[in-house]
Design goal:
It contains four helices and five strands. The strands form two sheets. The protein has a three-stranded antiparallel β-sheet, with no helix packed on it. Strands 1-4 form a two-stranded antiparallel sheet. The chain binds iron/sulfur cluster (SF4) (2 copies).
């Protein structure tokens, strides 16, 4: 009698379990699918803006970036992913200026911490969400971020040229004054030394016989 009761009890729990399972299956059957069909959906899929895929230099519409080659990002990068190579150029007003030559970034060692972006004083960097960066050779992960031909700096305006020339002349004038002041001070010191010397002679002369 007991075995018949156990039989129907386990049959009932089996049917109940089957109904529960089929309910879940039925629900999933009618729920909209979220599986991405990559790469078929390349053209339609929207990637999050804040996704950090690769570091890039921001270029404006005229093809200029804002990097001033200060090296802050390179110093702040925790694992030496960035190398900023610089060069010296002459500005239209005749001054020497440090400029970016090559901005080298190794995607293979980047941890995407974004310290470089947040510490850049000119807001020259950002992360692109272009995640398709797979390559077959590690060396191809080392990239030069200033990839566009360098656009010359805009010509200074007449006002800027006049201000630069005035500053140059003022600097020359200040240097002349400083040199004249130095010369006068040296002459005064020499004259003082000449005036003090004759007073010393009699003392020496007076002391000489006493020594004999
Ligand atoms: S990207 Fe920014 S922090 Fe890095 S060298 Fe250029 S200006 Fe400096
Ligand atoms: S995100 Fe971090 S690890 Fe990557 S280059 Fe910038 S500072 Fe270096």
């Amino acid at each position: 009698m007991g075995s018949v009761k156990d039989y129907f009890s386990s049959l009932g729990s089996g049917i109940s379990s089957l109904i529960k399972g089929m309910t879940v299956t039925g629900k999933e059957f009618v729920t909209p699918k979220i599986t991405e069909k990559y790469p078929e959906n390349r053209g339609s899929h929207v990637y999050p803006d804040r996704f950090r895929a690769i570091l890039v230099l921001k270029y404006d519409a005229e093809g200029r970036h804002k990097c001033i080659a200060c090296g802050t990002c390179e110093r702040n990068c925790p694992n030496g992913t960035i190398t900023v190579e610089t060069k010296m150029v002459e500005t239209p007003d005749g001054k020497k200026k440090k400029k970016l030559d090559r901005y080298i970034y190794d995607l293979g060692s980047c941890t995407f911490c974004q310290l470089c972006v947040t510490t850049c004083p000119t807001n020259a960097l950002e992360f692109s969400n272009d995640f398709e960066q797979a390559v077959f050779t590690r060396s191809k992960l080392v990239k030069q971020l200033n990839y566009l031909p360098e656009v010359p700096d805009p010509e200074p305006t007449p006002e800027e040229k006049a201000a630069a020339e005035a500053a140059r002349l003022a600097k020359i004038e200040a240097a002349k004054k400083a040199a004249a002041a130095k010369k006068a001070a040296a002459a005064a010191a020499a004259a003082q030394a000449d005036g003090a010397a004759p007073e010393a002679k009699p003392d020496t002369a007076a002391e000489a016989p006493a020594a004999e």
